[in-house]
Amino acid sequence: MIKSELIDFVARHNPHLYHADVEKIVGTVLDEIAEALAEGGRAELRGFGTFSVRHRPARSGRNPRTGASVFIEEKWTPFFKAGKELRNRLNLVDQH
Q1: Euclidean distance between CA atoms 13 and 8, whole angstroms
Q2: Predicted confidence pLDDT, tens digits, the chain (96 residues)
Q3: CA neighbor of 49 nearest in space, from 77, 23, 92, 78
Q4: What Rg do the C-alpha atoms of the chain give, in angstroms?
Q5: What's the predicted TM-score (pTM) here?
Q6: If DSSP states are collapsed to H, E and C, what string results for the chain?
Q7: Is 26 exposed, middle or buried (0-12, 13-18, 19+ CB in 10 A)?
Q8: Contacts of 48 (CB under 8 A, 6+ apart)
Q9: Which residues contact 25 (CB under 8 A, 6 or more apart)?
Q10: In terms of C-beta density within 10 A (0-12 exposed, 13-18 middle, 19 or more buried), how is residue 10 classed?
Q11: Quick one: pLDDT at residue 95?
Q12: By C-alpha distance, which of 28, 23, 31 is closest to 6?
């Protein structure tokens, strides 16, 4: 599902809300999650999962084409851990 599909889904299930308002709501939620991660924090949506950031220290790697050694700078990467409810729903689908 992409962002526009999520907006359309929420708008269809909430006909009392204008499509533009739903778009602002979804955008605001995603912006707040991104802002929390940018500040080094985390965002938890109970039953769905937790978004956090993980540090990857600087290291040396290899260019796969030439085999030459290259330096890879440190970076922060987003990380998602699925919540228990979401994991259970996914595992029920696999059993059918």
Answers
A1: 9
A2: 999 999 999 999 999 999 999 999 999 999 999 999 999 999 999 999 999 999 999 999 999 999 999 999 999 999 999 999 999 998 886 555
A3: 78
A4: 19
A5: 0.77
A6: CCHHHHHHHHHHHCCCCCHHHHHHHHHHHHHHHHHHHHCCCCEEECCCEEEEEEEECCEEEECCCCCCEEEECCEEEEEEEECHHHHHHHHHHHHC
A7: middle
A8: 82, 83, 85, 86
A9: 10, 17
A10: middle
A11: 59
A12: 23
**For position 92, what pLDDT does the model report?**
83
Q: Are 36 and 43 in contact (CB under 8 A)?
A: yes
For residue 93, the model assigns a pLDDT of: 63
Six-digit token string for 50: 């937790």
Which neighbouring-strand residues pair with 55? Answer: 76
Identity of residue 72? I
